[in-house]
Amino acid sequence: MNDSTTTRRFLHSAAAAAALLALTLPGSALAQIAPVDTAPGERGVLARAAAASYRQAARYPASSRPVAPGAADPVLAQRVPAPHSMPGRTADSPVLSVWSREVSFQAPAAVELHASLDQPRGGKSAPLEITGEVVRAGGEAVGRVTYRDDGEGADTRKHDGVYSARFEVPADLVPEVAESFAVRVRAVTGDGEEIGTTGGFLYGTPDARLTGRYRDEVRDGNLVIAAEVKVEAAGRFHVAGTLYSMKGEPVGWAQAAAELAPGVHWLELSYYGLMFHDRGAAGPFRLGTVALSTTTTMPNALNDLVENAHQTRAYPLARFESRPFGEPGLTAAAARLEASASGGER
Amino acid sequence: MRRRLVPAVAAIALMAAAAPQVLAQPCFIFVHGKQTNTSTYTNYSSARSYWVNGSNDFIRTATRNFAAPFYVVGYNGTRPYWEPQAAGEVANEIVNATNGIADGGGNRCSRTYAQGGTFWVVAHSMGGPVMDFILGNNDSSDPNYNYNGPYSTVAQRISLAITLSGAHRGSQGADAVCSQSNPFCNFGAGFIQGCDDATYWLRSDDAVQVKTFANAPARNVYLTGGWEAIFGASACLSGEDDGVVQYASMYACGGSATASYDNSNVCGNSFKQESSGFLNLDAGHENHSDIKDASDDDDRRQVPDGIWTCSGSPCAPNTTVQTAMTSAELVSILW
User: Fold this and answer.
1) Residue of chain A whose alpha carbon sits nearest to that of B249
2) What is the complex's ipTM, to 2 decimals?
3) pTM of the prediction?
């Protein structure tokens, strides 16, 4: 399909939009949008589309959402670091990719950093060297590392093209809560070309930890999984967890947050009952991933991810809420948009 | 004075021509991007000028010659997106706008939230992660709920956000600048000449990404971006880019922030940095600067899950859907 052959129809009130543009744009006329017959649709289409999506989302509370069949675990997706890359000087140059083993490391763990040089048409490139300089946000250098592909230390496999380095955060730099560090990575290719990029990691000392004790019940039609936390210092704490079917499919996500004093507490993840009707699944379920964070300040201190934390009992589907939640904020936003799109005032 | 009279006349003509739409028009709230100094925070004229290039004016175009009311936010674009002078300031100003308070130039929303007004945020570049942080921390169960401003009130009151080349996943330009070892990537003309604190927090690394510190946005964020390269700078960006931000970031993609995408294959609505709330509009042949000041009316292309229809069905990705339309004009036909 191309400009000359496409029969393009300017839809409904998009024609009105064109007329308005002709009126309002300096030097503009229909000619400016003449090749069109494509259009985003009638006037107010975006407002109506947004309203429809809000009505759909309002079936669940903000603290609990279903995971669509086939979709990724949202907790895992936020905690697994993705490599990021920097192209070389020319189209034929290798691409430098860097990543860390975790998005965030929990003191006193050592930081594990990785890098690779990838050929643009596939395959790895052997560098002369890859080095890194660890810096704080203000640019202060606090350490240097050399990446190796020797199968030792942080490098799990020798000569696989993935170069690794381990960095011990000096004791005087271990943050009270968390700090973001950057790593200036510099690779020298076999041809002597230098490629640089910046990686990084979070390093933190969370003020609470999951004790490993969980309990579950159906309350008010929702599956409530309580996770016990031991708090060392007062602050704000956030927990998120993804519930899996016993077949290993993510079913739902929930989160909770609270200000807590030192001591032992329970944080409750409440999975809204409708999700089990939507998926036709009553359990038992597996709490597949749980992420606790200290969110007293930015950046947050992320605890290590806990996987396969708990298995719930089986509950009859009938015990779960089957009515939409009707989240009031989303419902109100939808109504306001619909009124706006229809050209009326509230 | 003269400058304001002309649009006023046009606005009256518009009201006569399209009264129902005028009655229901949203108020537009504009949130700028990364800055190399604090001028937009301290001086309204700088914040307003951000959207202007010569005789071209994004705000005039998007509001159909000021037929819709607007409010211009000015925050400290040298600070990290989550700090009080960034997200906090933006949140407070948005609430001010919804209360009918005027911006520094005397522009105000004609109907307050209490009076039934609707509010659309238009954000450019770093304005993207600023809005993501606000809208992803609006609920008391969110990790950084109301961290340094009235995020919950913002989410309650705005109807949607549109981002223009939003740096949702950071910028490889920031990676290059902060590495201090890529002299061939010339960002001298961009907004990221140095690795200041804002740039540091706009890197591609997951440890600084807004997705690590926020949930899915409470209101939809609609995504458009530019694919006109800038000589030098674009050499350091993967796939299509606008000279400062790469597609994977503009379209808030899941996975790697530097994945190589173009108009045919950029992530659709089901593979975003969050499980919901990010939705594709289209792409324009504009660079990072053009897209915010309506200075380049050029081709627009459909992207996967984009909004353009061809003969009643969604156009195929990469279809040229317009040949002379700025992103400002796009916004103007969406309301």
Assistant:
1) A84
2) 0.91
3) 0.91
